[in-house]
Amino acid sequence: MILIGINIIGWSSYGINHVLIFELDPRSHVTHEEILEGASLLSLIWIISFISFILCEYHQLESHWQPVIFISIITFLLFNPLNIMHRSARYWFCKELFRIFAAPFHRVTFADFWLADQLTSLDLIFYDIEYLICYFAFDAQWTSNQSNRPYLNLTDEQTILYNAPICHAPINTVFQTIIGALPSWFRVAQCLRRYYDTRLGFPHLVNACKYSLGVLVAIFSGLQRQFASKYTNEASNPFFYAWILSQILNSSLKFAWDLKMDWGFFDQRAGENWFLRDELVYPQRLYYYLIIIINFFLRYSWIIRVYLHIQTQSFEHLQLIVFIFALLESFRRFIWNFFRLENEHLNNCGQFRAVRDISVNPRQSLLPTTESEHLLNEHAS
């Protein structure tokens, strides 16, 4: 939310009408100040929950309840029907989530696929949600006399995390794979729906193929973990190489799509804006060239993650690596947002694609007809 708030500051500062692009109500949409306030509140709740969890572990108290309480508070703040915490904005967000899940069955708007793109950069959250549900449903030891913390003496890397046999079982890998593929599948469904509505094979079918590669990445990642025990190391696991190949294709196509389709670069009419486009909203061309380079390295940062994964044997370090690279992907999406909405704004202005009808009918309920006519006649005379 903090990054989205900064995005809105940037869009507003340079005249990018995100309210019109997202088809928000100009009278009741949340401002960047309100978004940053909400982000600060959620961050404070998380910090309190995290510190409470650490203190419970340190004093050997039951700590399982801390994540449950945290998730319950966040769920209440998001879904409660009370007119608090910007109910209209929360309703809009929940409605958009529903539209993403029901993508094949209705027309897709810019806000739909923009939010779905954000979810593709937050796929780690989907894995975490699946694991939390599995852990608290099957593996959590809710009282200290049930578990007596036996996991503290474990050395097996595959079961060191709370000694969770069910959540590390092969069947759960299947569920994790399905959950991990959902963000990319949402975009595939949206692209197919847009093709159905427009009958344009390009860009919609090509875009669907691009996101299908993300589904393949999730599938091969799941197969690699599913059959890892049958191979001495990852170098002898054929699914590891299938995952690498799908990742290369996925990153390459998405990087090219970012530049040409999402950002509108490599325009033939770019003129002195080499490799960019004719119109630029942000003041310095250098920003654009730097962002191209940064986006390239962040798109392929998974190569470094794979190297560190192979070199690192500690389970805790592996989890830290995954978390750090998830933050990098969130940062890449944050940068992507600036230029994606810039391109959409320029297309709307240049092609008159986005308009909003404004009613100019007199508000007759405020003034009786006879009195209105009397005032008009008086003005005419």
Protein model, in words:
It comes from Rotaria socialis. It is found in: Membrane. Pfam families: EXS. It is built from 15 helices and no strands. It is mainly alpha-helical. The protein has a domain at 96-142 and 166-249. Helix 5 (87-101) packs across helix 6 (110-120), helix 6 (110-120) runs antiparallel to helix 9 and helix 12 (285-299) packs across helix 14. The chain starts with a helix and ends with a helix. 18% of the residues are buried.
Task: Give a brief outline of the structure.
The protein is 68% helix and 0% strand. By secondary structure, the protein is an all-alpha fold. Mean pLDDT is 86; it is low at 144-164 and 357-381.
Radius of gyration: 25 Å
Helical amount among residues, as a percent range?
A: 55-70%
Number of helices: 15
Instruction: Identify the overall geometry.
Output: globular
Percentage of residues in strands: under 5%
What structural class is derived from the secondary structure elements? mainly alpha
Order of helices and strands: HHHHHHHHHHHHHHH
Summarize model confidence as the mean pLDDT.
86
Number of DSSP E strands: 0
Biggest pleated-sheet summary: none
Distance between the termini: 58 Å
Q: Which parts are unreliable, with pLDDT below 50 for 5 consecutive residues or more?
A: 144-164, 357-381
Membrane topology: Multi-pass membrane protein
Organism: Rotaria socialis
InterPro entries: EXS_C (IPR004342)
GO biological process, one term: phosphate ion transport
